[in-house]
Amino acid sequence: MIVRAAIPADAEAMTGLLNRIIAIGGTTAHQVPKSPETVRKDYIDGPECITAVVAEGAGRVLGWQAIGWWEGDAHIGTFVDPGCQARGIGAGLFARTLIEARAAGIATIHASIRADNVPGLAYYARIGFVDYAFDPDFALKDGRRVGRVSRRFDLR
């Protein structure tokens, strides 16, 4: 597996992975499929983007992670191919993301995780994120209340 900075040419593969995760449901608050143009703008090189990295293996993108500005804070998102989870991809992504975040001068990384996303909660706890808020009323666009856990990772 190779973990490297994402480039605009990765947008299509990143989109395909994200849209598969959206279609499966249950682990992302995103409910509407995205276009490669939107993924590029929102995660790779748009004005709110801080860093994005991809993990490649077997000639394809196995996962990706990005930090961008949201509501004044640096927020992280992680997306790993469901068939490849629990194989160290998330850890590899985060190791590279930390390098990029420190280089960008980020002091704290925030993660907003659906309270019903058990694998996501476990992942962020495993890599050192700590809880600082909980919103039991957080709802998806379709009205389902799933709750949201807010976690942070301090780099300084």
From TrEMBL:
Single GO molecular function: acyltransferase activity, transferring groups other than amino-acyl groups
Domain called N-acetyltransferase: residue spans: 1-156
Tree of life domain: Bacteria
Organism: Aliigemmobacter aestuarii
Family matches, as InterPro entries: Acyl_CoA_acyltransferase (IPR016181), Bact_Acetyltransf (IPR050832), GNAT_dom (IPR000182)
Name used for this protein in its record: GNAT family N-acetyltransferase
Record key words, sorted: Acyltransferase, Transferase
